[in-house]
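Run log, item B.
One chain of 849 residues. Sequence copied directly from the ordering sheet:
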Amino acid sequence: MTQFKSNNQQAKNLVAEEIRVRGTVQGVGFRPTVYRLAKECGVRGTIGNDGQGVLIKAIATQASIDTLVQRLQTESPSLAKITEIIRRPNLNINVDDFTDFVVVQSNKGNIHTEITSDAATCLTCQGEIFSPSSRWYRYPFINCTNCGPRLSIIKRLPYDRANTSMARFKMCPDCKKDYQDPNNRRFHAQPIACPSCGPHIWLEKVGEQREKGNKGDELGDEINRVTDLLQQGYIVAIKGLGGFHLACDATNEEVVHKLRQRKHRPHKPLALMARDVKLIEQYCLISEVEKELLKNSVAPIVLLQRKQAKTNNEIALGSELRSIATSVAPDQNTLGFMLPYTPLHHLILSGLDIPLVMTSGNLTSEPQCINNNEARTKLEEIADYFLFHNREIVNRIDDSIARIINLENSFRIQILRRARGYAPAPINLPVDFPHTPLILAMGSELKNTFCLLRDGQAIVSQHMGDLANKTALAAYRQTLNLYLNLLEHQPAAIAVDFHPEYLSTKLGKELAVVNSLPLYSIQHHHAHVAACMVENGVPFHTSPVLGIALDGLGYGEDGTFWGGEFLFADYRSFRRLGSFKPVPMIGGVQAIYQPWRSAYAHLRELLCTYKSIIPQSWGAQESIKGETSAQLRDLENKMQDLKYGNLEIFKFLQQKPCKVLDRMIEKEINSPLASSCGRLFDAVAAAIGICIESCSYEGQGAIALKALAEQAILSNSEKIEPYPFNIENRTLEGELYLPYIEPLLMWQALLEDLKCNTSHSVIAAKFHLGLAQAIASLVDHICTNNRDLEIKQVALTGGVFQNQILLNQVQVRLEAMNLAVLTHSQVPSNDGGLALGQAAIAAAQFAKN
């Protein structure tokens, strides 16, 4: 036990320790908490930030230091997350050098600490905003160590004011006093500011630029003017925490429609913000768990079940409740609501009894605007007014999207977009994962994120969006460089998607060549499965799981596109044990945004089997490739007299160049085979008239189809019979048989229902339930025919499993088969989680080599 170098006899009972604390411990009020606890425990010494987290030098009796460490783990600030505490004796401390416990200046050092996420305004700060006696009364940039900006303003680590975009604002005497007082909750709150010394806001009409705003404006006139403009039907571009929002009255159909027209966003649901939960409850059904999520410091957009209004104008709380505009979320049973999460939002919403549309301020397919001049240029034809401020946004951050999944009274969070508040909190690799060097995973093309692997942790970036154009790719590069510099991350290997044409893949290959680094090309669906395994803590040294990866498409190892895969996988490799039936994707990428192409491909397969019902204008073949079951042959005999030519879907498709389409399929011209579950959803949606000609965003038809199915399942008291599917085998490379889900029986039943004018909601429900049963049947087939594999765990992953009906129905069926089911809760099941899986697989393969 260490004793001090001192002649003081009392020092003989004292020991000295260095206590290293790692995790999310900077910018969250950790040092003032340690200061308070040290004083209470009678500990002398120092505490400071450095590149590895927090370093404490403690001098006291052993019992006092033990108590301090114990209380640190139970009384940490709400935003802190301790991942490791390392204690060791310090032989070089002289007791006479320390008479008190003090906070010392930060040291940089090698970066091994975590970047803290932005946090919603805490209740205490909210109270001060609306207290006339507070010096922060109606100030839009109030914050403390429990809330406010972090990732959005940081330029370098450690997280000190000089390393943020607040460096330009010199603290006034009052703020400096609070900042330096260890007993103040603003002690070392790096963005601390007040109306005398901090950022300010100003309002501009489009085309009438103001050079500067007056610091006093935000205390009254500017906020009031904004609320008036919003109520009058104007669109206001508001500079927020991680970017601009476009805001308007969500109950005004005319202005919401105008916003959609100006932004060229015809159908995709728009996010909403409301003053408080009570107002949201007027429009949505909210459970207690959902209320907690809304009020969480993350403050995500939460998808909530909307109420079905009995009349256009309901009466609530003695006043007329204005309905949400139809254009906010067409064909949806849910609304995406969030609560105010910045002081500016609170000030604006406090004067409104209506929800606001609060959607990203950007041009179509481009990232969110983050600086004033960029917004003036790009949003001038969308917004009527701008509400600007002069605090620089360093790091662009979209709003996170989440919802609560309820499975047999078991609630869990499903993250649909991981961004503000969640990112970049690290995700721990399983404890037995082999030590690997720094790895950079580049992510996918759509819903992109990237991932940095280090110290047994995966740091997944915030949602970067779709890398569809040069502007999006430039923003991706900029954010990637910021992370690499912040964390001093010098990759020793790079992981990319197996698809050679993804922009993220091309950039990763470029970086690997320039820096002479090994490159790992990771199959898309294997990465999905690995991501699900990581976040569920599946050990590195464990038996493979059966991963069911359902999405739009990913490049397969056989040169076709996959999207409905059953993979026997661990972190190193995988074996394909089943799939959905491969169907031509006519026109390639065009099929994603023109669902009729998928409908044509699927119906052509059906009609080629049953030649007698083929419309004369279709140049179809007499039979399909592969085996036809006895059940199908029997059904064929019963179908000889059936005619479907009068159905709307056939009338529509007959207007298309069918012979050209057939030739494209037969000659394999821009019609790659795709075993895509997502395209099957598109085809079914188109068949019943949803988005038949085109859709404005990927998955639009599937989302509308799910909304229809919910209506039938919730309102139909009678049992809904699932559509039938078959499990068939196809031959690969002349010898290997791969079982697949054959949808021909489903299509025949669906067409019969259309012929009988069965409601579209019932058809959608039958499809969902039938598909869930088909997936479970294929799992049973795989397990039965591969008993030597001893499959015990199944991972459900891929964007299709964002469909709550399908997820729940599949999980219930698999658990009834005594299989453990793994699902996503920390990263999205869509491509937003792909980089995590890429990084884990690359690390495993690197270790193997």
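Observations after the first pass:
- Residues 123 and 543 are 47 Å apart (CA to CA).
- DSSP finds 24 helices and 33 strands in the chain.
Flagged for discussion on Thursday.
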